[in-house]
Amino acid sequence: MKKIYLLLLVLLFIQGCGTKQPKVLVNEEIDSQLKDKIEKMNRGFLRAVTSNNIGVMKKMIDTDKYEGEESFEAFFEKMHEHIESDNYTILDEYHIKNTTMGGVDTLHSINKKINSYELRYPKKSTEMFVSLILVDSFGEKVLLTIMYGRVVTGWRIAVLHIGGYTTNNKTAPELYIKSKKEFEKGHLINSMNIIFLAIDRLEPAGMYIKYDSEQKIKTHYEMVLRDTKIAYTFPLSLQDIKTQPIIFDIYPEVVDSNYCPVFRYISKIDIQDTLQLKEENIQVHERVKKIFKGVDKGSKNIAYKVLNRFPQGEFDEVKGYGFYKKNE
Mean per-residue pLDDT for 79-93? Predict the structure, then answer.
């Protein structure tokens, strides 16, 4: 009996010595005065970006604790290229009081729907504030992640990251759902192109955010890629067209925030002879709609890029000619 009693005491002691969880307030739970203060800092940060004022931004950085994937100067240049204005909306905000320092901790979003995610943050200060900001960028949204740490002189930026949040005005999980629907219809090319776009938007905040559906997206990507390779063999020669053009590549392109598939093919017709190319492309378009099920149903347009020879490697820029066909 004494041994059992002592064992219980030891277990209670171990539990009492466990790491205390950080105190976290999310969105509307956060004190309004603090939210207003951070909002002014966020606005000032974005104004500095759009006005190309790196000096103002440097004053906001905690140089001792700053964490980024590249130099601050290179990061600033990237932001200046992608951010159009200082108008933004808040995805989520977190006010965190850490009980320990160092290492990385995780929080889960209060959003339990399709875009739910896990937030990973480095414990740079005992008190932190995380702003996940959605900013307009040429018809799409980019996600600006700002993590502030409280120091003696006030709030300073410790972590910065910018990444693409939407394509075709959809997030990675939303694109994944769209890709699944196309796959279920047997529209392999549509499904493949859309899941490519989803993979490209899978890490909008780099290591700091992980979507709950990440593994499902990756698994679906592998399945679609496998089935597409089984269904279609490239290069694909269109033997029933007199000039026998050869389709060798298909990839997604986004034009005016709308996705469209791009077919690249080799033609024997000189690309300077645009009238003959046009006649040939009419036939190519009709064959593409028959060969690739649903390709004319999943987007507003189909694009074609015609070359006279195969590119010799990734950086061989072969001159070509293009066509856009509007889907009915």
Answer: 87
